[in-house]
Amino acid sequence: MRDNMRIIWYLVSKGANVTARDNQAVIEATVRNNVELVEYLVSKGADITAQDNQALVEASKCDSMELVEYLVSQGATVTAQNNQAVIEATKRNNVELVKYLVSKGADTTAQDNQALVEASKCDSMELVEYLVSQGATVTAQNNQAVIEASTYGNMYLVKYLVSQGADITAQDNQAFIKAAGTYNHELLDYLLDQGADIHAQSDFCLDAE
Q: Of 6, 109, 124, 197, whose Cβ has the fewest other Cβ atoms within 10 Å?
């Protein structure tokens, strides 16, 4: 890493343009989670908001609170790309980073509540509860969140989403179909009690009985 820094310092000293290709260098530094290099490039004129704030999105993908905080301090827009940064943070189940981005104005309901769907994929009750507290809609994307929770056999998460209004019969009873694949009989019984149709789509669910 230090050798790479020396090379970059040398190239810049010889006149390399840090803003070339729409500031691609600072974005690549962010992809590599190299805070020192990002700070150096910014000091030489790199624009961290270039390419619709792609650097911030990459920092969220890197799961780096330090880098995200730095980019925001330099003017990065947390709502860029339809709030993609907070969705990336949610994919990585980083509750602290999600909360930070929300505190800076990120919208957890963006992209039809994709953050909530990703949190359900992460099997994260804490994150799901937080997103709902921030206004996420549990029925978004035709109740995809409860289907994702059922896919992982998470009884507590499914029950929570149902308590918040999720419909377990949505998408032709996909929650029950997915739950069958987990062989979680307690969850299957719960879904049936909530009105799931055991004969929906196919007889696949019967195999789990």
A: 6
